[in-house]
């Protein structure tokens, strides 16, 4: 295998020419970048690393609802007419011992007159003001805006708005990236993320918070798509299999960092402000990141593409290629028309694969985002739960890389879905608050999250190989949209714990096992030539 970072002799140049003839890309623009800068080198490593690091704030903001609105005990404020009772005594006598009325109390006026009266004869009245338990969290959005009782639904609405924003950003930013390049929308997303993040940490009204929260989500969704595309466009060959998987690793690291910050800060406003300060460092990308040469070539900006590729070739130690660069630019092949997503739905040969992939993405998205938000309820220590899930998801991504190169795409998705499915069931069987910090439940939850973390990149690669080269972006973009739709449903699934505590996990296990059957009719793609056009499928 050639060195990643240098080609130092004439013999290596000849070897490169032989390899390039065998592996010549069907995309003429991709072929140019491959010939000039190679599959992977120092320059591609820099771009891929910078793009992957953007997964850190994506993890922070998509999952920090766990610390903004965690499970928090509350009770009614003690009225002055009952001031003779201690707080514990008040809490004991005021609330009915029935689960159906956690937000109602016995009428304080009657209790003050007849404290020993039969409780069945005392009417229940709504609680007017609340006191919150600050032993774990000093401040949450629940305590700031009283998101309890009749306003409890706003917690799940808050996370739903985040997911709606991510969907909108995933649609809006790629359109801008196709028209204005990758760098400009990426920098715009970083700036918007910083400004909106700061706003969410200081606003005092809930609905203003929701507006800034939605804008923040749009930026997060846009950054996720554009950064992924950018990291893929600069590499070639086998690295287009490796990079999409390694790109997911910082998401788990972000979970671990989020848990650590939340543990030390304990105040949601301080947490949001700290995340915004750290995220503002990404503004420095403006000085170290170049535009995608593939996009520049596709839009006819050959001079700018030449300058960037010239710099990249020097960094990668491929100066011997520079003299042939202009010849490569001159001999560009005219682009062909690419089919849209609906073309695959209408095609007899692709309809089944497209529908099954869409359903698989919906199930995967529902499992991933629902379980991510449900982690705070798995054990008694929310910090430990998020920390372990983040750390364990890292080897999950690395294991995905090993399995997918040896056993194939379909098998990899199958294996990771089985792991997560059984983990959902095992968690249901482990009693809560029996072991210290519920460590068995947390460990199994971490393994389940690792399974989901491995399934996502595997399914992405699998989807890409099932669609033809011409229209692959449209195809993959179309089916992955169903995962984003599922992310909007996830908060509603989590809220079902109010009906029955384990109901969300039961539904996730059911969905995951159903997904295994949806994988069966799909073909394996490992070792097969990729189709170039819809007619080749």
TrEMBL record:
The chain crosses the membrane at residues 153-173, 185-203, 209-230, 242-265, 271-288, 355-376, 382-404, 411-430, 442-462, 474-493, 499-520. GO terms for molecular function: transmembrane transporter activity. Keywords: Membrane, Transmembrane, Transmembrane helix. It is found in: Membrane. This is Major facilitator superfamily (MFS) profile domain-containing protein. It is a multi-pass membrane protein. GO terms for cellular component: membrane. Signal peptide: none annotated. Gene3D superfamilies: MFS general substrate transporter like domains. Its main location: membrane. The keyword Cell membrane does not apply. PROSITE patterns: MFS (PS50850). InterPro entries: MFS_dom, MFS_sugar_transport-like, MFS_trans_sf. Residues 104-526 form the Major facilitator superfamily (MFS) profile domain. It comes from the Eukaryota.
